[in-house]
TrEMBL record:
Protein name: Helix-turn-helix domain-containing protein
InterPro entries in UniProt: AraC_XylS_family_regulators, Class_I_gatase-like, Homeodomain-like_sf, HTH_AraC, HTH_AraC-typ_CS
Record organism: Paraburkholderia dipogonis
Entry keyword DNA-binding: yes
Domain of life: Bacteria
One Pfam entry name: HTH_18
Any one Gene Ontology molecular-function term assigned to this protein's record: DNA-binding transcription factor activity
Secretion signal, residue range per the UniProt entry: none
Domain HTH araC/xylS-type: 223-321
SMART domains linked to this entry: HTH_ARAC
Alphabetical list of PROSITE patterns matching this protein: HTH_ARAC_FAMILY_1, HTH_ARAC_FAMILY_2
Keywords: DNA-binding, Transcription, Transcription regulation
Length: 330
DNA sequence: TCGACCCCGAGGTGAATGTC
DNA sequence: GACATTCACCTCGGGGTCGA
């Protein structure tokens, strides 16, 4: 069941909100086993927008809160821990509220969490945007609530391509929603500035995401399996499991995936993992072995082997090269 | 169009070695 | 001692083919 609502505009004229000052509260609902990358992308977008505002002598525009049913320490699916506020201690204010709901392997368990469901029901009427990330929509469905996307994302405005907005029949990506909100609040130039500073694909060796590019000839089943592969880059993934997502036999899945996407599922997964490891090499100081394990690439040795094959370098050389020439990353 | 079977090679795993 | 890289061996993914 697809539960989707759209407001006329994600603008200040919303009937839901009567702000007393220019602050937007961005609540992100988490649970054990949530998928970290997309949550991190949202946080980064609003943080960059605040930082840009600060450089213009403006007050912080966005207040991002990480929330969970009980509060405290929450583990992502990649075993990275974050500290959260309890939903019960988090009060609704008369500021503008946006709600993002994480996806990830922990969703089925979170769907059975009455405390989280009840809070979603209480918070839903006060949130201008209610945007589930991937499997996060199952949490909304479990609470019998509709999604509430930013309607402007469905319009044919000139910046749709810039945010990689999907077809009209699909929900916008969480990144597109966050960027659109920044554009609404702070203007197109700021949104572009933020998009350019956070866009991982522009820095990475490959941009191969089918789910973002919306390749027209790709069937929904194959698209779903490709998305599933992208969302599970940090997990041990078998082709058989991916075939089950597409509701096909393993052999047929391999054949269809390659003919529609142009590469094998394992190649697709490998590229996604390499992109993630490249990003972590540049943005963190974690040792190569830990990065490899967190990206689903067994060991540092395996990562070195892949870097030698695909990039003709080693992970440490790649990291040093990116640090030595930051201008090339722009 | 899809499933089943078989074979080959690429990739994963863990140990060994090198470097700092 | 920690981390990075190489190497050897084994597993499994992908291609070819055929039949339903």
């Amino acid at each position: 069941m697809e539960l989707v609502q759209t407001l006329p505009r994600c603008s200040r004229q919303s009937a839901v909100r009567t702000p007393t000052r220019e602050l937007t509260r961005v609540d992100i609902a988490l649970f054990n086993g949530f998928a970290l990358p997309k949550v991190a992308a949202i946080i980064e977008i609003f943080q960059k927008a605040n930082a840009f505002g600060a450089s213009q002598q403006l007050h912080p525009r966005y207040d991002v809160s990480l929330l969970s049913a009980a509060g405290g320490r929450i583990a992502s699916s990649s075993s990275v821990f974050v500290w959260t506020e309890s939903v019960d201690s988090h009060q609704v204010t008369d500021d503008r509220h946006l709600l993002f709901i994480a996806g990830g392997a922990g969703v089925p368990h979170a769907c059975r969490d009455e405390r989280l469901s009840n809070w979603l029901r209480r918070r839903h009427p006060f949130s201008e945007i209610v945007h589930p990330i991937a499997e996060g929509r199952l949490l909304l469905e479990a609470a019998k609530l509709p999604s509430r996307y930013c309607a402007l994302l469905y319009g044919d405005n000139e910046t749709s391509d810039y945010y990689q907005v999907r077809a009209l029949s699909e929900a916008p990506t969480e990144v597109a929603t966050a960027l659109r909100i920044v554009e609404e609040d702070m203007g197109l130039e700021v949104a572009r500035h933020v998009a350019e500073s956070v866009a991982p694909q522009q820095d990475m060796p490959w941009d191969m995401s089918v789910s973002r590019s919306g390749t027209p000839k790709v069937s929904e089943k194959i698209m779903a399996s490709a998305r599933w592969l992208e969302e599970n880059v940090d997990q041990p993934v078998s082709i058989d499991a991916a075939a089950k997502v597409a509701a096909m036999s393993e052999r047929n899945f391999l054949r269809r995936f390659k003919s529609e996407i142009g590469m094998t599922p394992s190649d697709y997964l490998l590229r996604a993992r390499l992109n993630m490891s490249c990003r972590m090499l540049v943005e963190s100081r974690l040792p190569v072995d830990k990065i490899a394990r967190r990206c689903g690439i067994g060991s540092g040795g395996q990562l070195a082997k892949l870097f030698r094959k695909y990039l003709a370098t080693t992970p440490t050389d790649y990291r040093m090269g990116r640090e030595a020439s930051p201008a090339e990353q722009a």
